[in-house]
Amino acid sequence: MKRGFKAEAERKAIFYRQLLSLKEHDPLPSRQLADHLKIRLLTPKDIPHITDEILKVLLVTGKDNWSAAIYVKDDQHFIIHNPTHSAFRQESDIMHEIAHLLCGHELKDLETAMMGCLLPLRKYDQEQEDEAEWLGSCLQLPHKALFYYYKIKKMKEDDISKLFNASAQMVRYRISVSGVRKINWRR
């Protein structure tokens, strides 16, 4: 990642909360952010003319092989997400795809097949994937929110997980990489 990217990601997480009249430590639901950014969220069942065979692949036999994808048609952005995944995973996946858009990532290649469903999907290089992963996790669980709930409010990781619609694993990861666990906080 470029120098300063992680700090900028934290600033963006707070900026979008402020833009939506939320406090710095408030949860920012991915659907609310997508709505603000005019990104339509779809599941495979929402795709016009999709065949039952492709739906079966996407939602039954191949459901563990994909999470979400973003595509653009006529300047409208769409995120197709996997509704068979847990709510926590869907939240993370949608934030990841929003992060690609907010980072202005360019396509490396155009991938036109998603499990046999012909859609123009974005494919990114590894650096862009790393940036989207970092920004997506910051949008979901920014340092300021983790500090507030974990250090000041003394909430347990599981409670933070429920509040932010994030997996316990994601909460532990963000507490660790954001440095919140190491901060010696005294009231």
Could you characterize what this model shows?
- This protein has a 3-stranded mixed beta sheet.
- With 187 residues, it is α+β, with helices and mostly antiparallel strands.
- Helix 4 (87-103) packs across helix 5.
- The protein has helices spanning 5-19, 30-36, 52-61, 87-103, 126-140, 143-152, 157-164, 168-177, and strands spanning 39-42, 68-73, 76-81, 109-114, 117-123.
- Mean pLDDT is 88; it is low at 109-113.
- A hairpin with a 2-residue loop joins strand 2 and strand 3.
Give the radius of gyration: 17 Å
Percent of residues in helices: 40-55%
Number of helical regions: 8
Q: Tell me, briefly, the overall form.
A: globular
The whole-number mean of residue pLDDT values reads 88
Order of H and E elements:
HHEHEEHEEHHHH
Total domain units = 1
Distance between the termini: 35 Å
What is the spatial order of strands in the main beta sheet? 1-3-2
**DSSP strand count:** 5
